[in-house]
Design a protein that fits this description.
Elements (H helix, E strand, L loop, with lengths): L5 H9 L6 E7 L7 E9 L3 E9 L8 H21 L4 H4 L13 E2 L5 E6 L4 E2 L7 H17 L18 H14 L9 H8 L2 H12 L6 E3 L8 E4 L5 E4 L6 E3 L1 H12 L17 H15 L5 H5 L1 H21 L12 H18 L1 H12 L2
Antiparallel strand pairs: 1-2, 2-3, 3-5, 4-5, 6-8, 7-10, 8-9
């Protein structure tokens, strides 16, 4: 997408239901997908209020209207639940500011889509865990997200990214990439290819259970990283789950698993020294405890039992996607060096192996907190 021009931003600002006089607007945040701006308005006797304005990335999200329908449906539902529970809907969920025509988005004269949210005050996001309590609080927040939305009709949500966490389909795409071998790289990664092919049962596990209607479809976030939870500046508690672009029908175990894949790893996602890569059982236990506390009994016994499988599946899927992209010429994930996707794939596969070795421990930890 082209950079946002001053004219574009001014046009967008003029087409949302803002009050007061604009006194400041500047780029905001560390996100790489949407273009985000912080606006500050002066309102006569009320002082200043902050809002977020975003240009949506139509390359990453080719169906922006469906994305916004999912977001408004989920946030309206959350607002009612939060009020019922005596919470603060202004801080505990995203609040969409409508455009002048009442829609939750504005299409500018160049065809780009914009949206706006109320700014959540006195809370911060963190890209990296600075202390274990933050990881725990993010777990409680994502578990609470599951709990609050446990009776939302997930099947009514749009699948805005088709087959996003369909691991069986990802496996089929991987095999196709190996067969086509468009870059002539397959021979040099035979070990990694064999690693995937030997674990086809991981790819099929959840899909087959869904086929047999053994798992409930849930509202899932699908990007459960620490930086998608706002933590209160005073209490440190997780107060609001943000970045709802990937909210879709899915499996609770996958949301749990993706958090573990990223947050419980002892190394960066592209670490080249594989001796540094393992799944920390301390962090796994901390997150399990927080997630189940947040879920507040809303998951089925089968979903809880399969949480370790969620961690292994999401890690396996991610490694498989990195390897697929490497075989296809690094078209999807942005790389910063030769073989970057291969390094990423190897860290994920090392984590899968480590989980396999710690499988008994992981299951015992989940059992420990499943009855709390």
């Amino acid at each position: 997408m082209n950079p946002v021009t001053r004219e574009q931003r001014d046009e967008a600002i003029a087409h949302f239901r803002y009050e007061g006089t604009l006194v400041k607007d500047c780029p905001y945040g560390s996100g790489h997908i949407n273009d985000t701006f912080l606006l500050v308005f002066e309102i006569a006797e009320m002082g200043r209020i902050k809002v977020i304005l975003q240009r949506m990335n139509s390359t990453a999200f080719p169906k922006p209207v469906e994305v916004m329908e999912n977001i408004t449906g989920v946030t309206s539902f959350l607002k009612k639940k939060i009020i019922e529970n005596g919470g603060d809907p202004e801080r505990e969920t995203l609040n969409v500011i409508p455009a002048v025509d009442g829609k939750p988005y504005y299409i500018d004269s160049t065809g780009d889509y914009w949206r706006s949210y109320k700014f959540i005050t006195d809370a911060s996001t963190y890209d990296l865990v600075e202390k274990p309590e933050q990881f725990y609080e993010s777990a409680v927040a994502f578990g609470n997200f599951q709990s609050l939305l446990s009776d939302y009709p997930a099947e009514t949500l749009h699948e805005t990214i088709e087959k996003f966490h369909d691991t069986r389909n990802r496996f089929a795409l991987f095999k196709k990439a190996v067969e086509e071998d468009v870059m002539g790289r397959a021979a040099s990664v035979e070990k990694e290819i064999r690693f995937v092919l030997e674990r086809e049962e991981i790819a099929n596990c959840f899909a087959e259970m869904l086929d047999r209607h053994e798992l409930p479809l849930r509202v899932t976030h699908n990007d459960t990283k620490l930086n998608n939870v706002m933590l209160d500046d005073k209490t440190g508690k997780g107060i609001c789950v943000i970045d709802l672009d990937t909210v879709m029908p899915g499996l609770a175990m996958n949301d749990f698993g993706d958090s573990i894949r990223f947050g419980a790893s002892t190394a960066l996602e592209d670490e080249t020294d594989l001796t540094k890569v393992s799944c920390s059982m301390e962090l796994f236990e901390l997150y399990t405890k927080g997630f189940l506390k947040g879920c507040d009994g809303k998951l089925t016994a089968k979903e809880i039992e399969l949480m370790p499988m969620g961690a292994k599946t999401m890690t396996f899927e991610c490694g498989m996607r990195f390897l697929t992209d490497y075989l296809q010429g690094d078209k999807y994930f942005r790389i910063h060096r030769e073989g970057h996707n291969l390094d990423r794939c190897r860290t994920q596969f090392k984590l899968v192996e480590d989980m396999e070795q710690k499988w008994y421990t992981m299951n015992e930890i989940v059992k420990k907190y499943s009855n709390n």
